[in-house]
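Here is the promised in-class demo. Please do not try to memorize the tokens; focus on the logic of going from shape to residues.
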């Protein structure tokens, strides 16, 4: 997996340590659901919030419900390229945010977050100290060229993978 990450995202070649950075699971759903618990543990808040694009994968809302966090559904409308508007998220809400689920390429819309969008999402995660959960299980389904990834974007910006977790899936690319 670490070798594949280096081939898929050349900037990450040799930067992904299989023992430290990779957790193989039966599927991305299990990781997307379970990751909320350490996210809450690392940033205790009186009323934790999980940012979820709408429409959304049910695992995101289930994770919020199971963890006791409040879901904040962010509309993914056509006029915003079917991605949540990062500029319209209230700073008070961001301060309480423990995680932001972002699916790119998204399902069902097929929206692909450009590198600049991912860089802004990473910057928000770092500024407000929450985790960006990049659901990239459809990253290998494309026509013209591979979509950018959250980890490669995070590393390109600062040389760090901090505040970003990427969820990949063998089942979608197989």
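The designed amino acids, position by position:
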């Amino acid at each position: 997996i670490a070798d594949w990450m280096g081939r898929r995202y050349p900037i990450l070649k040799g930067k992904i340590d299989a023992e430290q950075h990779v957790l193989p699971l039966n599927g991305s759903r299990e990781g997307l659901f379970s990751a909320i618990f350490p996210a809450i543990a690392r940033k205790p808040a009186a009323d934790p919030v999980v940012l979820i694009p709408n429409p959304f994968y049910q695992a995101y809302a289930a994770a919020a419900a199971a963890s006791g966090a409040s879901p904040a559904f962010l509309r993914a409308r056509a006029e915003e390229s079917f991605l949540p508007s990062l500029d319209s998220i209230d700073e008070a809400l961001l301060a309480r945010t423990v995680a932001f689920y972002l699916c790119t390429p998204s399902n069902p819309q097929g929206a692909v977050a450009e590198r600049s969008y991912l860089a802004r999402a990473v910057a928000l995660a770092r500024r407000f100290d929450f985790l960006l959960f990049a659901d990239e299980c459809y990253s290998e389904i494309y026509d013209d060229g591979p979509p950018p990834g959250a980890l490669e974007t995070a590393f390109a910006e600062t040389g760090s993978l901090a505040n970003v977790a990427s969820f990949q899936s063998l089942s979608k690319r197989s």
